[in-house]
Design brief:
SH3 type barrels; about 50% helix; about 20% strand; 6 strands; 2 domains; about 170 residues; elongated; 6-stranded antiparallel sheet; alpha+beta
Length: about 170
């Protein structure tokens, strides 16, 4: 029973990993608040010397001069479910494979399989909670107040932001 479960988990992980590798690189989703009060949301295509090129949610290319930017928010996708899934799988496998002997010794009325199942469920729940919290934290948006940066800091920030663009080496 446990061998079948582990084989299914292994196959699922393999398929999931291959599907992630096959995806096209996308730029970061940004919400850019300008000094004039306007804002633009879209995918970061590239970072130029003094401007950003975004593809707006309407599909139009928008160039924004960095001197006109008040604040940039990098919008991240939530990683709560991913973290919870990884945590649950790791906790369940760790509990079932590593801690079932301890559970078996403490509760002599259980078979090895029952002890593995119970320890897997218990530690899977702990992993689910811990992984979910970690995923939620990792998926938080990041906000940068570009208007407060010195010119040298803006250059460093643009290099850092450029690594999240769809086209990282713009000529």
């Amino acid at each position: 029973m446990i061998k079948k479960f582990l084989i299914i988990v292994f196959i699922f992980n393999l398929v999931f990993t291959l599907s992630l590798l096959a995806q096209e690189k996308r730029g970061a989703q940004l919400m850019v608040h300008k000094k004039d009060g306007g804002s633009v949301q879209g995918e970061l295509i590239t970072v130029k010397a003094n401007s950003l090129l975004l593809m707006s949610s309407e599909g139009a290319d928008v160039t924004i001069d960095i001197d006109n930017v008040e604040e940039i928010r990098v919008i991240k996708k939530s990683k709560l479910l991913l973290g919870a899934g990884i945590g649950m799988a790791a906790g369940a496998m760790g509990g079932a494979l590593l801690l079932n002997d301890i559970w078996y010794e403490e509760h002599g009325d259980l078979t090895k399989g029952e002890a593995a199942l119970k320890s897997g469920i218990l530690f899977g729940c702990f992993g689910l909670l811990l992984g979910g919290m970690t995923g939620a934290y990792a998926g938080q948006d990041k906000t940068y107040s570009v208007a407060e940066y010195q010119p040298a800091e803006v250059k460093v920030f643009l290099v850092k932001l450029g690594k999240q663009a769809r086209v990282t080496e713009y000529q």
